[in-house]
Amino acid sequence: MTSFLSHAHLFLAVLVLAGPALALVLLHQPFDSRIARRLQQIDLINGVAATLILLIGLVRLFHFGKGPDYYFHNLPFIGKLVLYGIATGLSLVSTLEIRRWAEPLAAGRTPAITARQFGAMRVALSLQLACVIAMVICAVWAAGGTRLPG
């Protein structure tokens, strides 16, 4: 079970990394309903992956591996949790915008989006991607055992 959860956690981390990267690529293409639908799909997959990675991570934390005493005194692990929270908040910028598109897309129309909204999504996705990359680095450091004093 430990191996399965470890591999699932890693696979989900790749999905969480790919989500904002793919969305950024799509946001640099001419916007139409096809791009909007793909962004919806990416946002959904990214949200599910981010939720599952958190749940699996918590299961691993409390029931497998080194345990909560190790990780809750581990500075990179705490940093990873903080970055996860920031990335989640940043993802709301895109998610809320994309959810606004449901009605126009259902009616077969391309959603209306301003240059400012595109810009906000690009900035939020770029920062989200930076957070995820930093989380991966923190995960490597956390596994190495960088601990808080005491």
Describe this entry's structure for a reader.
The chain is 81% helix and 0% strand. The protein contains six helices and no strands. The mean pLDDT is 92.
How are the SSEs placed, and which strands pair?
Blueprint: H1 2-27, H2 33-63, H3 68-71, H4 75-100, H5 102-106, H6 115-144
Can you write the helix and strand succession as a string? HHHHHH
Globally, the shape reads elongated
Helix percent band: over 70%
Mean pLDDT: 92
SSE-based structural type: mainly alpha
By DSSP, the count of extended strands is 0
Distance between the termini: 32 Å
Radius of gyration: 18 Å
Summarize, please.
This protein has 6 helices and no strands. The chain has 150 residues and is mainly α.
List keywords for this structure.
single chain, 150 residues, mainly alpha, 6 helices, elongated
